[in-house]
């Protein structure tokens, strides 16, 4: 699956509409193979993004968990550590 789509559930603060829309856009881009659709496909592409966004919002609002909410800062730090282990420290 697309590595650019991040987990949006169970965070404090919750995912914003912009984050959900961005994840939906990435998903539609991945499925369609288009980064930017042609004029002929623009409306279908936009409609797909809107529908995926609505489905994602519905999903996120209906999910329940007993796990404590995750901190965005802690997740960013974990991702940074994984990146350093995988690719080495940034130089420069």
Structure commentary:
It is a single chain. The protein is mostly helical and 92 residues long. Helix content is 58%, strand content 4%. The chain has 3 helices and 2 strands. Strands 1-2 form a two-stranded parallel ribbon. It starts with 10 loop residues before the first strand and ends in a 5-residue tail after the last helix.
Topology:
Blueprint: E1 11-12, H1 17-32, H2 42-62, E2 70-71, H3 72-87
Parallel strand pairs: 1-2
Features:
flat, 58% helix, 2 strands, single chain, two-stranded parallel sheet, 92 residues, mainly alpha
The SSE string, one letter per element, is EHHEH
| Spatial shape | flat
Range of strand content: under 5%
What quaternary form is this?
A: single chain
- Continuous helix count: 3
**Radius of gyration from the alpha-carbon trace, in angstroms:** 16 Å
Q: Major sheet, described briefly?
A: 2 strands, parallel
How far is the N terminus from the C terminus? 31 Å
Number of distinct beta strands:
2
Indicate the mean pLDDT: 90
Return residue spans where pLDDT drops below 50 for at least 5 consecutive residues: none
Give the structural class. mainly alpha
Q: Estimate percent helicity.
A: 55-70%
Strand sequence of the main sheet, in spatial order?
A: 1-2
Quick overview of this protein structure:
The chain has 92 residues and is mainly α.
